[in-house]
Amino acid sequence: MVEEKRKHKRLDLDVNVQLERLDEDGITTLKFVHVDVTDLSRSGIGFDSKKKLAIGSYYDARIQIWTKEVIDVVIEIVRGTQKDNGYHYGGVFIGMTDTDALKIDIYQIFNEE
């Protein structure tokens, strides 16, 4: 059995995400990138994309969650692997309000029952 190293449990859910890349001056340089979320936790996100993204790059993300509310976060891409039909990425949230983090926690609690 593989030991879970994550601080927060991953959630599998149907959400919409829009990414905009931030350059060093905080200016967006890439308009919306469509991604398919594979998992989400309080601390980060896993997703598939047809576009190649740079490891260590930052993105403003608008995540529409199951309640149809939108969470605005900043994501840092920390890992990526190439797949047959694109790429799979892992990102950590480096900017999220406590209120938005709580929404993810609440969803997790209800899905564990």
Characterise the protein shown here.
By secondary structure, the protein is mainly beta. It has one domain: Thrombin, subunit H. The chain is 13% helix and 50% strand. The protein has one helix at 98-112, and strands at 16-22, 28-40, 44-49, 58-64, 70-83, 86-95. Strands 1-2-3-6-5-4 form a 6-stranded antiparallel β-barrel. The longest helix has 15 residues, at 98-112. It is globular and about 35 Å long. It starts with 15 loop residues before the first strand and ends with a helix. Residues 1-12 have low confidence and may be disordered.
Tell me the helix content: 10-25%
Cα shape:
globular
* Largest sheet descriptor: 6 strands, antiparallel, barrel
Q: Could you name the ranges where pLDDT drops below 50 across 5 or more consecutive residues?
A: 1-12
The chain-level structural class is mainly beta
Average pLDDT, rounded to a whole number, is 77
Helix-strand pattern = EEEEEEH
Superfamily at the CATH H level? predicted glycosyltransferase like domains
**Care to count the β-strands?**
6
Strands across the major sheet, in which order?
1-2-3-6-5-4
CATH class: Mainly Beta
How many helix segments? 1
What portion of the residues fall into strands of 2 or more residues? over 45%
Task: Tell me the number of structural domains.
Answer: 1
Radius of gyration from the CA trace? 14 Å
- In the CATH scheme, what's the topology name? Thrombin, subunit H
The first-to-last residue Cα distance is 23 Å
CATH architecture name: Beta Barrel
